[in-house]
Write a structure and sequence with these properties.
The protein is α+β, with helices and mostly antiparallel strands. It has helices at residues 2-8, 24-67, 72-86, 126-130, 181-212, 222-239, and strands spanning 92-99, 102-110, 157-163, 166-173. It has three domains: 2-50; 72-201, Beta-Lactamase (2-Layer Sandwich); 213-239. The protein has a four-stranded antiparallel beta sheet with strand order 2-1-4-3.
Length: 244
């Protein structure tokens, strides 16, 4: 029949016949329904697999771009670009820990999250306090972070950016439900990659500062002079002006 031919071509949108009699025709109709249900389930699994591979590809590409970042601003741009594609239904914000003053500062956001982008004390976030994602299980009763808008606190997820056992930043997500369990794993992988990238940039800045300034006096050293001279010479050549 036409129904069997369409099912054989994986057209599972077709409506199967419904017969209630207990005979060969009824058995055949039930077998066709089971075949269609199994086909729909298999098709859904294939779609989930394809979506999973697509997200893994995005995570791999994001990690590669983070490895090429030279500044913290580069890291922020990579996060803004890839985060909404990795989790297109989950708004979020990226915070970085400042030491002076001691606060979490919002440096990026995507997909229009609710609430202000004002800074807050690190202790206002339970993920920062615990050094682990919070809440640990989505959809179960738990204390909410104090920095979140009250209307979205119940469907939030905060993931700390950890480097050498210390939190140096935070990914704060909204509209995360229990059905987003697979997405949560990807969000935590994204946080791991961003935390490593931010730690590398901080280490790079610290090493550069040590190279340019004397560790005892705090004064600029010969290396700083060489760097400044090279920069000024390049500027003079570009603008056709005297170096003096």
């Amino acid at each position: 029949s036409d129904v069997v031919q369409r099912l054989a071509s994986q057209d599972y949108a077709v409506e199967t016949p419904h017969f209630t009699q207990v005979d060969e025709i009824g058995d055949m109709a039930q077998a066709i329904r089971i075949f269609r249900e199994n086909g729909l389930a298999r098709q859904q699994l294939e779609q989930q697999r394809d979506a999973d591979w697509a997200i893994r590809e995005l995570l791999a590409r994001m990690t590669q771009r983070l490895q090429g970042c030279e500044t913290i601003e580069d890291v922020i741009k990579v996060a803004e670009l890839f985060a909404p594609n990795i989790a297109p239904t989950i708004p979020g914000k990226l915070y970085i820990l400042d030491t002076d003053p001691w606060q979490m500062r919002c440096v990026a956001q995507w997909l229009s999250p609710a609430g202000e982008t004002t800074s807050f004390a690190p202790d206002d976030c339970w993920a920062i306090r615990r050094g682990l994602s919070h809440p640990p299980v989505q959809g179960e009763p738990d204390i909410t972070c104090y920095h979140l808008p009250e209307a979205h606190a119940g469907q939030s997820l905060c993931v700390p950016l950890i480097a050498q056992g210390e939190a140096i930043g935070l990914l704060s997500f909204q509209n995360v439900t229990a059905s987003d369990a697979p997405s949560r794993a990807y969000l935590e992988l994204m946080a791991e990659a961003l935390g490593l990238a931010l730690a590398n940039q901080r280490l790079r800045s610290a090493l550069l500062e040590k190279a340019l300034f004397d560790s005892l006096t705090g004064l600029r050293n010969r290396h700083h002079l060489d760097e400044a001279l090279h920069s000024q010479m390049a500027l003079a050549v570009h603008t056709h002006t005297p170096l003096s």
